[in-house]
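User: Good morning. I'm curious how S-adenosyl-L-homocysteine would be positioned relative to this chain. Could you predict the structure with it bound?
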Amino acid sequence: MKDPALWLRTICISNGLAVSDKQLDILSKYVHLLLEWNTKINLISRRDVDNVWTSHILHSISPLFELRLIPQPSVLDLGCGGGLPGVPLKILNPDMQMTLLDATRKKITAVQDILEKLGLEGVDTVSGRAEDMARIDSYRGRYHYVVVRAVASLADLAKWSRSFLRGTTELLPEKPKVGFVAMPPALIALKGGDVQKEVNEARNIAGLQSVSVVTMKFKGSERLLENDKKIIVIQF
Ligand code: SAH
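Assistant: Good morning! Here's the predicted structure, ligand included:
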């Protein structure tokens, strides 16, 4: 891959997502800062460093290709680590209002430094455990979507997410009828491997409206290294 940023832009365009030079530049800076911080604290697996554009950036933004989201959503990245998937999602979909949450303070310190250097607006950070934060009034019912990658079982995530979430009266803009319609309140979980057992567990939780498994099939998704990646959408 000669220029991974241009490669990513080509994938975005072939899936109908325009990306400006500025966005691409910010995304490249993010990758650079993530890798720099990764030499000090463990944000992404060392064996993934060479594949950062595919296994981390492309994977993180996959919901933009597979799902239809409401405009200007308020989003919580639960267990963001070094800012994945929240930061790439925010860069490519700037009208998201994004909160990045992680239980590990030093990871949040790294993310704050990265965000400051990127100059992104409309994004804030908080360190704490999701199950504790969910009890704080100012976080309750604040988000349309919780996005998450590699943090906990779907059953735990569903339990923790519920109180962060709220619905909307907003309608989705008229678009070609492609993509899974993810109406809030919804948890969007990026998962790999065999998800059936977890999905069944989540389906047994009382009070959920639906648990849907969206298989990645956007143009370029075959480039994700482990190709049985799924997006699980839990609607409340
Ligand atoms: N989402 C990131 C990080 C995954 S590692 C990525 O995909 O790269 C899992 C992260 O979840 C860790 O940073 C850990 O600190 C955080 N985490 C685990 N349990 C948590 C909880 N209960 N509340 C908040 N963060 C949690």
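Residues 44, 79-81, 84, 101-104, 107, 129-131, 149-152 surround S-adenosyl-L-homocysteine (CB under 6 Å). The domain at 4-235 is CATH 3.40.50.150 (Rossmann fold).
Let me know if you'd like a different ligand tried.
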